[in-house]
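Z., the sequence and structure:
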Amino acid sequence: MKAFFLSRLLREKVLLLAFVLIGAAIWLSSVSDRVGVRWREIRTTTSDLDVQRRWLLQQDRIQKEASLAIEHLDPALAFDSVRLQSEINSMARDAGLSNYDVSDSRDQSTSQFAVHSVQFSARNADIAALVAFYQALGKRAPYIGIEQFSLASNRANPAQLNVSWRVTSVEIVK
């Protein structure tokens, strides 16, 4: 290889050297990009692990607070998925809402709790009925709560509102 290079004319040597340098620059650029991506991944992972370590250090305190909270909850007042849907329906009727929909329940279970959630949406509702419904939900806290809320005015009649709420309930698993 050395003999081949040395036997070339000066302009060919410069041209070959330029091609090698361009190839090296492209390769180093690619390596630099990959190293940057890995460095960001390492920093993100380190940050995530630090957050997890801090939560794990607080494990005893969290368990004590959860135990205290469980002692004050009455399992008879907790809602299962069917009872949550019927309770939301009755609260909506009592609040004066007529054009509403309650979706099927989605459930997530742990060893101590089951969390049930339904999507509640009302169309063309007035603010008084929505406030009454919200207050009825508030009276059943901490067993029923609002997880997500969306509000928009009706374009045809701005006095009427369209809402969508994700309502959750906690059931104590025995």
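The chain has a mean pLDDT of 90. The CA atoms of residues 26 and 32 lie 10 Å apart.

Let me know what you think.
H.
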